[in-house]
Amino acid sequence: MDSVVPEFLLSALNLLWVIAKVALGIGFVIFVHELGHFLAAKYCGVKVEKFLVGFDVPIKIGPFELPRTLWRKQWGETLYAIGVIPLGGYVKMLGQDDNPSNYQQEAERTKLPSHRHEDVIDGGMVAVGMRGDERGEHVEPLEAVGQHGEEDRGAIDPRSYTAKSVPQRMLIISAGVIMNVIFAVLMGAAAYGLGVAEMPAVIAGTAPGSPAWIGSDQWGELAHLQAGDRIVQIGREGEPYDHLRFDKDVMLHIFLNGADQNLDLLIDRDGKREWASVRPTVADKTVAKPRATIGIELPRALTLGTPPTREHLPAAKTDTAFAAQDKIVAVNGEAVEGYPQFQRLLARHLDKPLVLTVERVNENAEDGKEVIERFDISVAPNPLRTFGLEMQAGPLTAVQTDSPADRAGLKPGDILLSIDDQPIGDPMTLGQRLQKRIGEEVKITVQRGAQQVQLTVTPREPQQTAGPYAPNYPVGIEEIGVAFHVLHEIAGVEPGSAAEKAGLAAGDRLKRVEFIPSNEEQAKKEASFLGEDYVEPIPLDDDHRNWAYVHSMVQSLLPDTQVKITFDRDQKTDSVIVSPTSSPDHFNPERGLVLTYKFDTHSASSFGDALWLGYRETKERLMEVVTVLWKLVSGQLSITNLAGPGRIAYVAGAEASQGIGNLLIFLTFLSVNLAVVNSLPIPVLDGGHFFFLMWEGIFGRPVSEKWIVRLTFAGLIFLLGLMVFVTTMDIGWFAGIVQ
Are 446 and 416 in contact (CB under 8 A)? Predict the structure, then answer.
């Protein structure tokens, strides 16, 4: 128990520190925006009555009323405070109020009283009034020193916002946006000065049948994308950049590009650069929000995570245990430089033990210095778990460019019938069986329309492992370069297999699959790496071609978990419970190692470089926000993709956990976002006020108060509705209802 408490306290303190960093960071972005308004107002001689970060609205919970501010201090004529609601902030100037219901009251407050029997000097401005009467002196008018220049019984206080010229008010309104952009550059520069953890735009692998996997004969020497390729430019405009990020640049551009137009990518492969024009596709149309993809996988490191292995797989059953942060540096004595090479070795040695050499950093007990130790750990092969079912292979959905299948003349739509005059058998093990024929000619018979066609193919060494498969993705046979969906009709059942013992037979059509954990503890363990919804039924029909996905999930199940298969036979629906068994002949390339994603630290080389990187970051994020808004307005992007304050705080916390540099990069994006959104011509926002001022400047008169009130109320209702909507979406996202 004693050892658990410090660890728990450390975790709690770390969480509190992350929350504190997020709160301070977001508060700073809001502070910078309001500081812009404040400084511009002071420069123009406007009286600032309040400067708030957060909102100071009254909150009542039954008989209890919360304080409106967390901190407040009156300094001179301005009240500085932190509001209790951390969703924004405001600068309250004399004569300016965003609440339409206060317009009349605010207008009255800005008028100077007539017949005031005193000299009023406020910031160098002398108020309109009368003097000398009570002193028995000659009564004379007191001139107004200000905008009007003569006695006016309803004169406006020259220090009010409304008393200033249109250009001055435009400066005050736009200063918040300007400050956000300036500080975005500075925060970006500071981030790169400290160092930012970035996921490099290096491809770990390609999904079979995807645009990246298929490739094109117009790509020059590339033919198709492969593991290890680095993306250095997106779109023909601009210049190559070696520090493009996979998650924040590549994936975002693919998402915004959509599936209706090509996306040009400049690829660096072993120092040679070639352009690839890829048409994204929507691979899985059954999800709530289908998204475009080109089928490339996130880059992975050869560093083990926490936990380092899956407890029921071979990597957890070694003589020397793996540890978190172990780094794999060699396989069977061959040095490995990165994940793509490691994956190729896994694919080529499925049925053999692998001796992995790992480096482990330990602290020397005597002097406390770090020492690097090396261990050779032998990992046994991982037998494939199977039911003994041979499912029907569907027509080829894709043939990879310049692959053995492409050179042999196979075409999309062909149906594989036999290999060397023998049935193709289980499509999930076809690739492994072809590995035994690498470099040899293999006769393949296909159904092409009404004809059967015989072709000769020479299998090659696979460049990546097969699977795991996502829902509705086709199966890839890397050895010859074809992809196809596995249909849900049983073509055959292996004699003596679990499927045969359960009563399944050729011709049965599967409808759905459910996983049944042996107990609640097992269910929690499986949910930790398969997801909370793994026990939900997986549909199998024409829209949900999920057998490959089911096959992948089965490989990760704990040994005691059973599988319920529901099927149709002779127009009747039935179900059986099956326990998958280990195959003696086929193997799973994944041996239970938990590898982390790859991140590199990008640091500026000089102060000038940091400023340039900060400017680049700001410019790119600015263009992205504008693009997203345009796609929202034009209907190309659903409003459901917007995030509210909950998800913003969550992402900020995730970035903060990676270091101050990453938090500053996120705040750069948030500052740019705040600048662009506030520039929109929506009443209540800065852009709306600026639009009214443009009208006044062009036509020489302000917009009528009646229309200002109407439009402001409309803008306020729109923004409140939007806030309720995105907050609801946030709740749905955290609850797992919204993707």
Answer: yes
